[in-house]
Amino acid sequence: MKLISSAIRLLVVISFILLVAISAVFARSWSYHYHPVSEATPVATPTTVAPGASEPSAKLLKRAIVSDLAVFAQDHNLQPRTGYSDPMEYVTSQLLLFDGMNSPEALSMFASLSGYYLGAPPEKLYQCLALRKAKAVEPLLQHYLHYGNPECMNELGQDFSKPSASLDGYALCSNSQQQEQRLTDLIARIDNGESCADSELARISGSGRK
What we know:
The protein has nine helices and no strands. By secondary structure, it is mostly helical. The chain has one domain. Helix 2 (about 60-75) packs antiparallel against helix 3 and helix 3 (about 85-95) runs parallel beside helix 5 (about 120-135). The longest helix is centred in the N-terminal third of the chain and has 32 residues, at about 1-35.
């Protein structure tokens, strides 16, 4: 009887040791495959339109333009993207893609950019593109003229309403008076039948791509 009792105790001890060993193995295996997910810190980072895409969506194109301007507005020493001599050259190249985009979504995205200061060369390009789109985009510009365009402030925040040395001393988020002046002039030019020929478009876009 004592022999049986001793055997049972030995079996229990062995079972316990095996259980601990197996648990340790599983724990070690789980630890090798576990990768903690760290919380993202919100920072202004540029959005990239994938090169070679047949036609990026208007929403993605606008996001690429605005995100680059936001980063540039905060860092005058920002290094340009690969293949571009300066940040404004990239913005100009992306804005130029709107020339062949005339879907309702593209027109809406294009018109909404009127609430942002795009930089000197892109501003001239924007006006040229608006003249080329003419009556197709005018109702949307009229809407922003009458009701304002607070999108930039709502999306980016108060900091971007302050003048930036990177943007010729202008704020990325144009105030209501600047928006009204810009849109009034642009709509008047559309109503007067002013156009922007291909040669003028090429000259303006070329000046923004040194």
